[in-house]
Amino acid sequence: MRQPKDQIMEPVASNNVEESINNTGSASVLQKNGLTRRDLLWCAGGAAVTLGLGAAIKAFGSEDVLRPPGGQNEDRLLALCLRCQKCTEACPRHAIVPLGTESGFITMRTPTMDYHLGDCDYCVEENDGIPLCVAACPTEALHLGEEATRNNTVIGEPLLIKNWCLAYRLTRCRDCYDVCKLDAIRLDSADRPHIEWDKCNGCGECEHVCRSMTAGTPVPGATHRAIIIVPMGQGGEM
Amino acid sequence: MAEKTTETPLESADAQETPKQPKKPAKKAAKKHDNRSPLSKLRSYTPLLVVLVCAIAFVANVPLGNISSFGWEAISAICPVGSLSVFLASKVFVPRILISLVIAVVLILLFGRAFCSWICTVPLVQKMLNIRSISIEDQRKDAKMRERKSRKKNTNKKASTEVNTVAEDADSAVSVALSQEERAEISQQMAQVANSHACALHSPKKWDSRHVVLGGSLLSAAIFGFPVFCLVCPIGLSFATVYLVLRLFTGQVSWALVVVPVMLLAELLIFRKWCYKICPVSALMSLISFGNKTFVPHINKDKCIETTKGKTCSRCNTVCPEGINLHDYSAGKFGINDCIKCRRCVDACPTKAITMPFLPPKDE
User: Fold this and answer.
1) How far is it, in rounded angstroms, from Cα B231 to Cα A169?
2) I want to staple A202 with a disulfide (CB 3.0 to 4.6 A). Which of A42, A113, A155, B40 is the partner?
3) Which residues of B touch A54 (CB under 8 A)?
4) Is A156-238 the same fold as A62-154?
5) pLDDT, tens digit (0-9, with 9 covering 90-100), for A68-87
6) What backbone phi and psi angles, to 5 degrees, belong to B260?
7) Residue ranges in chain B modelled with pLDDT below 70
8) Residue B55: closest CA among chain A residues belongs to which residue?
9) pLDDT for B108
10) pLDDT attached to residue A4
């Protein structure tokens, strides 16, 4: 590697000497861009890696994930998100967390909802119904239209696993029903929860308060709380 | 101008308190340990300070962001590469991105590439990884090549010994563990270069591989619809690491805590010349910096020993991590637009002939 480099460097150097003599020492604007063969290799590598990286990450793909309010257009979010994590900082209820590698490389460090520490009330209490994450986003990757409200911005939908739910063991636990501000949960005659699908906006309050898994699980093998919010199309009662 | 504001009050205060006689030896002793000016000392702490501020903001739930977008709501200084990438990827016009881009461009026009030495976290990580300042290695290689080239010529011994002594008490900021022999070798070669004045191995390149990476990233973002470089940017990754560690305290553990630091370390360890060969942020800033006319290092020709006494020194050139030749921009490895305002030349100059005034002096 070193031998040929020397051979290339020699003529470049002599050119410069000639030029600088011709220009009597002053900086010449039109001086030739003296790239060596090694420099060109770096250039070619740089171009190949940046383009290849884009293609590879895109081809690897990603799974559907929950997004903070205003991030429901996935293509827009992936294009505009700088991965700066300002929304995570802004969320007063700690409900926004950056994604790891679980759902694909392209979504890494983009925001998702995690209702374990808090729920999303659209910042009604904290900021008069203007979500602070949307306000903080420097590139409007999280962006709400003028007609967007808490009720018509749907983050995700609930998945209720009856077998894991304390109420379905007739314990009369009704925490999710009590906490739901949108009346999206109704109780049947035995105080068991059912979901009102057209009312739910995926705010995660029910998941946040669900006692299953937090106060011991009724079923061995349960992996998460009995009611959780999942991306659109994956919800249900089962 | 910046120098005046920091140094004169200190010195005058000293002079008032103590008579001049006992002050001198104390000052000399201090100089042996660290001969950097207060501003240069501050520079080695500012990136850490930025990380600290961002970490506190993260814990305190203040959406201040980090250096990929630092600011409040619509008013922030977004990384110019990031803002261009997301604009090309989304093809959507977002007013606050334009505002942020304008802010970033104004800052770069005002301070040049000062970001690279004052704020960027990558040199901090490199320092932790003990990655040697690559410019020194480059300069050694260059020196060796110059040696081969001019081996036939018998060089002036007087000049070489002179530079030797200058190199002896070399600037602590740049003096990486170079052995005495290596140091002597460099200085000898430097002397040879100085002798044959026009002998410049590199002319400053108008563009290099960093600019190709910049172009490739932007093109890739436009084609694939997401800011490709932002996903692997070591600046973003270093802040992501800090955030992940902080999130551990709230009990949130994820595989990202392994993946993110590993990516960061791999990038910087494999590409040890990251800042000089790859970083598209520095590429974009160096392009914008062609318009930077403030805080440009300036040599007072009445003080410089090269111009006044005709002696060989080139110490400002040797300590410059960007290989800029302040005497003749066209003879440097990089042009003056790549100046990172690190003030190493200001500190290194034996006659204090170099200053970084706000505006270039009108005389000369």
Assistant:
1) 46
2) A155
3) 220-221, 223-224, 226, 228
4) yes
5) 999 999 999 999 999 988 99
6) -65, -50
7) 1-35, 132-204, 363-364
8) A89
9) 94
10) 45
- Among partner residues A6, A42, A138, which is closest to B96 by beta-carbon distance? A138
Structure-block tokens of residue B314? 């080139």
Q: Which of A6, A50, A89 sits opposite B145 (nearest CB)?
A: A6
Which residue is it, tokens 């998941």? A207
Q: How many residue contacts between A and B have a Cβ separation below 8 Å?
A: 227
Nearest chain B residue to A139, by CA: B97
| Dist. CA A217–CA A229, nearest whole Å | 18
For residue A190, what pLDDT is reported?
A: 86
Q: How far apart are alpha carbons A234 and A166 in whole angstroms? A: 22
pLDDT in tens, A179-219: 998 899 999 888 899 999 888 999 999 999 988 877 766 67
Nearest to B216 among A46, A76, A140 (CB): A46
What is the pLDDT, as a whole number, of residue B31? 44
Our CA dihedral for A56, A57, A63, A66, rounded to 10 degrees, sits at: -170
Q: Which chain B residues are Cβ-neighbours of A19 within 8 angstroms? A: 203
- Distance of residue B1 Cα from the nearest chain A Cα, in angstroms: 26
Report the candidate in B255, B200, B181, B242 with the shortest Cα–Cα distance to residue B48: B242
Can you spell out the DSSP letters for B318-359? HH-TT---SS-GGGSSS-GGG-----HHHHH-TT--EE--SS
* Residue count of chain A: 238
- Interchain CB contact of B96 with A (< 8 Å): yes
Give the closest-approach CA distance of B254 to chain A in angstroms.
Answer: 6
CA B56, A106, B255, B127 torsion: positive or negative? negative
**A86/chain B closest Cα distance in angstroms:** 5
Position A30, amino acid: L
CATH 3.40.640.10 given to domain A62-154 = no
Contact between B246 and B59 (Cβ < 8 Å): yes
Report the percent of chain A where pLDDT is more than 90. Answer: 32
What does the block give as tokens for B135?
A: 């410019």
Chain A residues with CB under 8 Å of B232 CB are 53
8 Å CB contact between B88 and B218: yes
- Ramachandran assignment for B361, one of left (phi > 0), alpha (psi -120 to 50 degrees), beta (any other): beta
Q: Where in chain A are the domains? A: 62-154, 156-238
Hey, how many other C-beta atoms are within 10 angstroms of the C-beta on A180?
21
CATH class, range A156-238: alpha beta
Q: Does B226 touch chain A (CB under 8 A)?
A: yes
Point out the residues of chain A with pLDDT beneath 50. 1-31
The confidence score (pLDDT) of residue B287 equals: 94
Phi first, then psi, for residue B220 (nearest 5°) are -60, -40
- State the Cα–Cα distance between residues B125 and B47, nearest whole angstrom: 10
Residue B229: the pLDDT is 94
